[in-house]
Amino acid sequence: MSSTGETEQSTSTGIPPEQIVSEIVQFIDHNGEIVKEENDQKKSFLSCLSERADFLTRGFDYSVIAILGPQSSGKSTLLNLLFNTKFAVMDSVSGRRQTTQGVWMGIANMNSPETYLILDVEGTDGRERGEDEKAFERKTSLFSLVLSSVLIINMWVHDIGRYNAANIALLKTVFELNLQLFQKKSSHKTLLLFIIRDHDGQTPLDQLKTTLLQDINNVWTELSKPKEYVNSKVADFFDFEFTSLPHKVYCPDQFLEQASLLRNRFLEANSDDFIPKKQYRHDIPADGLYQYSNNVWETIKTNKDLDLPTQKEMLALFRCDEFVEASYQQFVVELKPIREKIEKGRIYEGFGDKGKQLLQACLESYDQPASRYHADTAAKKRSGLSDRVLLELRTLFNKQMEKLYEKSIDFYKNLVQETVGTKKTAESGSQLITHYSVWAKNVKQSTIDYYSAIAKDSVVPDANWDYSQDLQELEEKITNELETLKENQLNKLAKFMRDIVFQQIGQPLVKITEQARDDMWKRIAELLSDALSKNEIDYRKRLQDFDVKEETIEDTIKTFRSNARDQLRQKMKERSEFLPLRMRKRFEECFSLDDKKLPRKWSKHDDIGTIFEEARFNAEKLIDLFSYMRLNEDEYEFTFFTYDEASGSQGSSSQSGSSSKSFVPSAVIIDPENIILSYEQGVTLVDKFRLDTKTDYMNALNEISRSASTGGVPGYMILLLCVLGFNEFMAILMNPLYLIMAILIGTGAFVLHKLHLSAPFIDMASRLLVDVMNKIKDVVLQVEHLSTHHPDSRDSIKKKND
Ligand SMILES: Nc1nc2c(ncn2[C@@H]2O[C@H](COP(=O)(O)OP(=O)(O)OP(=O)(O)O)[C@@H](O)[C@H]2O)c(=O)[nH]1
């Protein structure tokens, strides 16, 4: 019969077929190979287990029960009855032959809180295997012994007392193998449950039990034991239980009844006669059983020395790696949103605590299954997992720290910005930080505090991550930034103080320069000195706020004074740009206005030359005044430009008027720093000014000559004109042409008079007349000159005139 014979089993158990769960799988096949799904097209133990979460989550809370015994001794029948499994049972009609091949496994389906994994092992003493029988029997027996906590020894009643019977050989094998295992150190006893089949009751069970125990002891005594176990007893390693079942065929009802009673002993954990007590259980977690079974069988198969602790370690290594991976993946998923936030350049607040939480969750999820495995191995793997998680967290921590560094710099910049205002106003220099050194100290501390708080918050507790170097770098950076800012602020303060001084002296300076009195420099020097002294106190106080050394303060004040001088020179240069206008004004005040400050009316009695020269001198004096800065008392009387009466060729000689004086630089050694207008600029000014005033001089002359020529006509001359001109008057009246011309001229004169244009017209006409007269005069003089020096030519002229 094949291994899938199900029909007979379901009927023989008496359990309704629908309640039977057909979860039996071949773990080791007839050839001693572990059944793998892909090879055999059969369901493997692995895939069967993977569908049984209820079993996998049992941890240590399950028992493995295996059955050993002669072939066709009703092992599968019994297992199915006890555990509601569906192991294949031989069809008795087809004869006694091997049904169970290799090792089958199934999970008990008993409607009980207890969980059993049942191993149905190929019968011993079978005809099918032949020569290899002993070897295979040893291997499967060893495999069953390693895995199971309860080992059922199934035996025929008639085999008891027969020392050569198969059951004795089986016991010997089991004991030998057990010693082999115990040499490698074991932890608990295994229960050997003897089930005597076809017990007809003729020999009481107790007697059978005694016989069996005798046999057991004999076998144990005869065993060649390792040194350390020479004096050991079989009871040191095994507990024994004995029970019997009636003949299944002859007494089916009693058989089922007894089987049912036996079944009950697997249901109630609290009952005294409960068979698979906890103390017999192995320390292999349910979820590692498959891997462990695999390892054990592979080791047995290859005839290697079976070292159970090593097997457990190997299992732990394998399983713990799986748990590590599963826990780590879970950690990666939970870390994802945090990672994304940090990688986007944002700060994750409370990173440290969150990290610790994730680490703990990860380790807890690992510990739960891993704690059931080999403790040292599980601990090592746990430590590896912890390191891996911490490394990942550390990478993110480093990124967060980089960002935090940048953020701290921004934080610092914001603090600066808040104090100095917007960039625009800061650049314009209007914003000065008061009490700088105190402020800077606070800003630095706030930035450090900001960094430290988040950094501390980002360290996973107990991770021992150090950020002190970064913090030190930040401190240095902020110190440097503050130094630069301090320089900047000092420069701004210097400018501010300079501006204050010039704001204060600005208006008075304009007034003084406009007045341009001879004591102009004395007044400017006093003005500047007052302003400097007044502001110096404030400046010193402000400098002290910057926590600068005393000598630096002194140097700064010196620079402040010297810069003020420079700026004054600059201001004076600006003021000197209006010099031509001021000179013109000064000249006109003197030349064009009389003593009563009324427009001057030139008469032939006026000494134009002297007045003109005096007016020009007064105006040109301004060039000297504005050309050189005189702030010291001994410099007030100093002249930079002066008149050189002797020289007519150098510098700017007078081109009009009566003066031939030149305007030249003083021979005194001067400080070039104080020069406002250079000599060349002065000469250019003089030249332009003199050219400009030449017209004034000419106009004055013209005005005098005009007034001389336009004096009143005497009355007698008018009477004489009437008497002598009577004929011409009448001729005009009589001649229409003359009359019209006279009317036209008369009308023109009347219109000019009415429009008040007669004076300009006369002025123009008289000028024209004077010009013509002058020209005629020049021609006459030239002719005279020629005639005096060249008589011939005079003769020739005379001749010509003749
Ligand atoms: N005499 C007797 N026969 C039984 C008993 N239990 C089962 N059988 C019969 O014995 C035959 C073999 O039963 P299995 O349960 O297949 O025996 P097995 O030990 O599992 O057989 P293998 O797996 O091949 O070693 C079947 O025909 C059963 O009906 C029993 O208690 N006494």
TrEMBL record:
GO cellular component assignments: endoplasmic reticulum membrane
Pfam families, per the entry: RHD3_GTPase (PF05879), Sey1_3HB (PF20428)
CDD domains linked: GBP
Chief location bin: endoplasmic reticulum
UniProtKB keywords: Endoplasmic reticulum, GTP-binding, Hydrolase, Membrane, Nucleotide-binding, Transmembrane, Transmembrane helix
UniProt entry tagged with the keyword Transit peptide: no
GO aspect biological process, one term: endoplasmic reticulum membrane fusion
Residue intervals on the Lumenal side: 734-736
Membrane topology (Cytoplasmic): 1-712, 758-802
Transmembrane segments: 738-757
Membrane topology per record: Multi-pass membrane protein
Annotated positions binding GTP: 69-76
Domain GB1/RHD3-type G: 59-279
GO terms assigned for molecular function: GTP binding; GTPase activity
Gene3D superfamilies xrefs: P-loop containing nucleotide triphosphate hydrolases
EC code: 3.6.5.-
InterPro entries attached to this UniProt entry: G_GB1_RHD3_dom (IPR030386), P-loop_NTPase (IPR027417), RHD3/Sey1 (IPR008803), Sey1/RHD3-like_3HB (IPR046758)
Root EC class: hydrolase
Function per UniProt: Probable GTP-binding protein that may be involved in cell development.
Protein family membership: Belongs to the TRAFAC class dynamin-like GTPase superfamily. GB1/RHD3 GTPase family. RHD3 subfamily.
Record PANTHER family: PROTEIN SEY1 (PTHR45923:SF2)
Name this protein carries in UniProt: Protein SEY1 homolog
Species this chain originates from: Heterostelium pallidum (strain ATCC 26659 / Pp 5 / PN500) (Cellular slime mold)
